[in-house]
């Protein structure tokens, strides 16, 4: 039982009461998400004060409202108190800090019980893919006992909101940690207190804010130290031995190394339609590219580490996984098969995705030269952005692709590296041409770029 009177962020409590935050409360910041036992936290917006929108929420029975302390908000609350005298209106110094504080206390209490695992995932590429794969497997082997990050809610607000979904019934949490500025992974780790984890890899991501890959490593790699400190070195942590940065982590009692060239405990080898990890062989026709097969096998191994008795269920669950929209997803449009990965892009993820697409074509005895690839901008790469785009353009040419379209403000840099290719400033300006001259006439397409370009709009899906 946690009393709001004991929360440092609370400044004034009207209609004082204690609530069991670890079991009965689900905190929401969107009035549309209300369900029984929810408490609403009003986070000030740039244009809208959410307190002006809670009348219907109160009529539905919401009995606890948190709001940021200000004279304006106090005046709004006074108007509600008369009509809703049984509702607890609680002022806090800062709404976001309050959510973070409550989430921290809540998960700290949950972790004190044996058998509870909070598995966190950081890294430059593949965080969400690992999260989706591991969540899918875990939910299939221990249904109803798994909580995971939804979509990409991996920041200072998304992480605490994810943790509020944890209850006494929860056994396993899959938590994605995102960062694009120094110090954010440490903040999220200090909040969530992970006792197991994985840093996927280190690459040229968000260099506009980090400057160097070494700085990216120091940021993303903090998860290793957090798990180590939280568990006195006993917590399960996978070390990617193929990554030149991550392999420098020292072994602890709980670490396990993996990699295609590793001689450590865990060996991995690839097969045309699956991947094998230790004594677990995974097959999934929905997954394209050795990098994604590796991701799936890794997630199967993680699940088997915690639930070795459920290995047959883990293998079956791995086989049924399907990529989420816009992430390494195959879709059919007008007799064309499209490999869509339009959620994010950086040099390392672009390379492995292109290699995976080509590998799929080769495995199917299909012509690489007759396929079409559409490459969008890779954002937040800093002052060397043109060089990175030029490098990927050259890489695409080396792989043998002939029908190439570059979209975005770095399209000319792509062409400089490739030597040829059509260029368009935006997806909307390429859309008509794509649908008339490419879609349906070329059977296989590869589409990848940063989220801001919304390349999925080329064929009218959202």
Please provide a written account of the structure.
It is a single chain. This protein has 462 residues and is an alpha/beta fold. The chain has three domains: 4-95, Udp-n-acetylmuramoylalanyl-d-glutamate--2,6- Diaminopimelate Ligase, Chain: A, domain 1, CATH 3.40.1390.10; 113-319, 3-Layer(aba) Sandwich (UDP-N-acetylmuramoyl-L-alanine:D-glutamate ligase); 329-459, Alpha-Beta Complex (Protein-Tyrosine Phosphatase, Chain A). It is 35% helix and 20% strand. The chain has helices at 55-59, 71-83, 95-111, 127-141, 158-163, 184-192, 207-210, 213-220, 222-231, 290-306, 311-319, 347-363, 385-398, 411-418, 427-437; strands at residues 10-14, 26-28, 38-41, 64-68, 88-92, 117-122, 146-148, 172-176, 196-199, 237-240, 255-259, 266-271, 274-277, 280-283, 329-333, 336-341, 372-376, 403-407, 422-424, 444-448. Helix 4 packs across helix 11 and helix 12 packs parallel to helix 13 (385-398). The radius of gyration is 24 Å and the shape is globular. Mean pLDDT is 87; it is low at 13-24 and 262-276.
